């Protein structure tokens, strides 16, 4: 039986080893991409792959678990072992990772006042239930049972959030109770305050750092921290940031490959590292995260290209070769090879066949949830994407005041079917003036609210704003209106099949556009969204994610696994009143 120990060095079967690892998130790739990505990591000169495990994709509904397809963590780990790689797993309930709510499931927010990432009894009971399902799947994958997993994380950057050591202890105890016996670790920034707050060094939980430069200086801080606690462990950077993530409205962030290679060389001379990211992939569906900056929440884009060593689609970049050479300089005995390339294709253009307004289609797509006061998105649906609130208000046949109170994140107000306002960030909650039609006793008010992504890092994790939809209500004049119909748009197979395209089109309203076409061959491709406004694209029922004409990225990556040889059905949900006439594929990403 092979062994892995952490003493003054990492010891594999009793012999010192340098961990050269790269981050590949199985859930951001299709299973068909896993092998090429893992091969290219090994060809780089690496011996280890690291991945987070997001709670929210594995328990999307409380008590309902999903480990199929791109969520099959066991298959991913076994494939890594088959390809000769060790594995570092990070199953902590919070992952950050520019992922929706840092991996925490939205349904937790149904419990008002829950204190996340703490010993709150409600929270820890849910952690126990989740771990009781997840951890037994991971136990046989440990090196101690013949698997490739050498280490597991108990919490992620906790020192950047809290300092409750008892929470860390309870999490560690749960992992051990359910069978984890490989070394455990925490990862935090490399400065004293967060290391003090976020580690469990006094209980022999290995300490790793997260940084992307100044390797020697950061190593000195980590080494002094360990020595102060009587430890002489090796230095490891668990997230060596080789690029960065991107947000809507902002320029794409790039990092020079030669500069990175020089820093990687410095780090490898000091200790071990995990390149974050090696292959970033895609935030499919509604799983993009969000940054918190002051009073603003700044959602991240669908692409998680990250300017990593492999592009979003898996193509080796110039940066890959720079880092490959740097590894060889420090570790001349590592095995390296030419990476596998990726061919992307242009699959042509296809006309929109049918379209229908959401307002015309909604009642056949789903049964409205009727309440006196508005429900949050977590209460009415799965907590992701969009929810439509519809209300009938008295028509006083003069101008009236209207205000939506306490809503997140972006809302569009329609009065008698006409767009009245879009409110977002600084304009949320501003008072509007409305007037009904002269021949009707009531005014139809529809408010489409979009959850643009919950924060994944920082002080807002427990903020009420992370509960999405309308939390307060809609005011007419100076009173709260009572009586709502709520339509959670979850884009399930059932909802998509129930769209009645004959119900009535109106491109000025949020609308569904259907494109049907035949393909003789499929391939990895991009969908050109540069002529669209804002919305999502579903390919044969798979939600590719959000597009938005504010940039910086104006396309969506579509892996070949989502396409069919033969008949294909694409649905575009467009919210900005931008009429869509065709679907166009591209062999490359379209960026500003």
TrEMBL record:
Superkingdom in the source lineage: Bacteria
Cell division is among the record's keywords: no
Reactions that this protein is recorded to catalyse: Hydrolysis of terminal non-reducing beta-D-galactose residues in beta-D-galactosides
GO molecular function, one term: beta-galactosidase activity
Keyword terms: Glycosidase, Hydrolase
Domain Beta-galactosidase galactose-binding: 510-568
Domain Beta-galactosidase 1-like first all-beta: 374-489
UniProt record, GO biological process: carbohydrate metabolic process
E.C. number(s) listed in UniProt: 3.2.1.23
Protein name: Beta-galactosidase
